[in-house]
């Protein structure tokens, strides 16, 4: 079945591959030593999956992993699965069927007459791929009915057309400053190695003023890597309210060398990011810190985790699970070890426990402890969580009123959507 194909695929999300690797017989199957994936059995409509050890997010992973027909994929080369003809007309089990696909252009969905649930009220849907400038142009021309955006500029442009309404959605998408603890040569970064220096630089930034001026409602302040709108947020976590006097005092206590220059890099190229970086630089200079800013260009993976020619990197993270948020701090992450050096006795036990826990309340408790740990390390200095916006042309479309993270699968009740015009 497709789980076996996924295990051998060269193009698969690490969260999925990590979960699937815990299926009984996964290693033997992947290495070609077994004809079948031992841990997966099928009895009529019942599929049983046996794991070698608990996987906390296995149910979440399976909820995001749609079933595909074995007979259409089993003869494909796993290394080239993403190029298979199947994706030009994929087969699923929802209220719509794909009838036409033009890669990097559009796909046509038509109501599936044999759908087991209620008959969809809209007969045909066109999914379009387009550049940002086309999104704005088409919205102004009333040519889009439903689309998600992260750009506040696009939201504002769309709302100039009174037909549109924007629905904000809180998602696991955060912005932060990554501290290069190991330094460029791996021997340790003496400039920012003292926790008090990193704490001082966090206190020195008026994040509320930045959020109000640059993001205008899209950004929410965070003091951990968990957005406050999520149930896992630890309300008792340490806060870093703007306090430049405290920042100056902590820098002095840490014997910070004010003659050295802090290197702040970023890889986003939009004007909003440029303005943000300039503002952070301004705030740090107000407490006496010299700052050099630059745009990171080239192979980002190599530059961020191997070359590491920065003291702080302005970065973003979007994740499906809490394991993704904290996995970089575990010593089994080569990339994280390159930048942070690791703290095996501190981070590993909690992250290991999270990885094996599926009970939601217990997971919340573990993530709460991880957030407490953040303040003791501040390897990632939290800045903001960012809202996603769902733009709806309400002059033409009536949705089911359910809006979630458009980067994941969720039940939009699309079969209940209605067109107000013919």
UniProtKB/TrEMBL annotation:
User: Which intervals hold domain Solute-binding protein family?
Assistant: 24-328
Tell whether DNA-binding is among the UniProt keywords: no
Output the superkingdom of the source species.
Bacteria
Residue ranges of coiled coil = none
Q: Which SUPFAM superfamilies match?
A: Periplasmic binding protein-like II
InterPro entries hit by this protein: SBP_5, SBP_5_dom
> Is Transport one of the keywords?
yes
Q: Which UniProt keywords apply?
A: Signal, Transport
Pfam families reported in the protein's UniProt record = SBP_bac_5 (PF00496)
Please report which protein family the annotation says this sequence is part of. Answer: Belongs to the bacterial solute-binding protein 5 family.
Q: What is this protein called?
A: Solute-binding protein family 5 domain-containing protein
